[in-house]
Amino acid sequence: MDFDPWDTAFVADPYPAYRTLRERGRAVWCEATGQWLIPHYADVSALLRDRRLGRTYLHRFGHEEFGRSAPPPEHEPFHVLNDNGLLDLEDPAHARVRRLVAKAFTPRTVERLAPAVERLARELTARFVAAGGGDLLGAVAEPLPVAVIAELLGIPEEDRGPLRPWSADICGMYELNPGPESAARAVRASLEFSAYLRDLISERRRAPGPDLISALIAAHDDEEGGRLSEQEMISTCVLLLNAGHEATVNTTANGWWTLLRHPDALARLRADVAAAGSPGIGRPEKLSTAVDELMRYDTPLQMFERWVLDDIQVGDTLIPRGAEVALLFGSANRDPARFARPDELDLGRTDNPHLTFGAGIHYCLGAPLARLELAASFGALLDPAVPPLRLVREPRWRDGYVIRGLRELLVAC
């Protein structure tokens, strides 16, 4: 199978194509996407840390100087939102913003959320079981991370309805060559979400609370004397929702689809959870190990793109400044040079340095929260009191390859 991110069969199972790419070389030119594909683990890991590459080039070059065209003016609301978030900032701006965000989004913040995450996971699971099952993606996988991020940010419950649609529309711009309709939806969502957060930030300035927005307002750097601008706060909040929502939702749904296709592994995992007792905040180590393996085995974010800011050499290939590389996380996580029996699901795999959360300065800031949510969700559904899940029908994959997920996952219990 060829690398074809617009083909439904490829999206459903890209791993045979990745094997072919790894055999072809360390850097493979893709005419269809205009990128150098990087399929090997060692190269992906190294380039994630290489400062000769960047998520943006605007900290060093103008569009024309870099040989690229400026985005259409009508896309500006999306780019203002996106370009001021940690995902696309480069140093020194990235270091300053990440340092300030880290002062607000601390490990203690995540620890304080743990009881709420566990409660939400149990409540969603209980409702799902009472209904006899249904769409696991829509009933459990999606609501949990959105509710958790909303709780973290201090968004009132009555205001949470638009959060999922806003996130989905904005993330549509991260796909390869998004069309005008996707761009229009992303721009509209960027404007609406930004306006909502601007009002919420104004309220928290007047009356701070025990939420992350209030902490972001208060965060300051004594050495630099800096604070986050309003736009940086807005972009940070949107990124937390988008990254947390898309990655956690797809890991949950894709992970359950994987488990349902590996009934023996699923049965052993259920037995491990039962033997360990309650899988709550003191969740068993075997569950955390299994969740890491599910993230490796079927990676929710398949591709991470970077601009080449200075010439680089990958194997025998010189990749010039101005080119774009596509770091193939899904391929790297199945590379036999790094993982023993990479195409085998091994829920007890302990040597598992998967790249699902990235690496380098752009390593996912929300990784601890994502792990907490995933352990709570899988733990609740694997609880011995919950009947085993049974697949109702084989799911279909959503359009889109970069952020790869199911349309639905219908199960009975």
Q: Structural class, from helix and strand content?
A: alpha+beta
Task: Output the number of helix runs.
Answer: 16
Estimated helix fraction: 40-55%
CATH topology-level fold name: Cytochrome p450
In total, how many beta strands?
12
CATH superfamily annotation: Cytochrome P450
Strands across the major sheet, in which order? 1-2-10-7-3
What form results from the Cα inertia axes? Answer: globular
**Biggest pleated-sheet summary:** 5 strands, mixed
The averaged pLDDT comes out at: 93
Can you identify the CATH class?
Mainly Alpha
- Overall tally of domains: 1
**Residue runs with pLDDT of under 50 for 5 or more positions:** none
> What's the N-to-C terminus distance?
36 Å
Q: Please give the radius of gyration in angstroms.
A: 21 Å
The arrangement of helices and strands along the chain is HHEEHEHHHEHHHHHEEHHHEEEEHHEE
Give me the CATH architecture, please: Orthogonal Bundle
Tell me the fraction of residues in β-strands, as a range.
5-15%
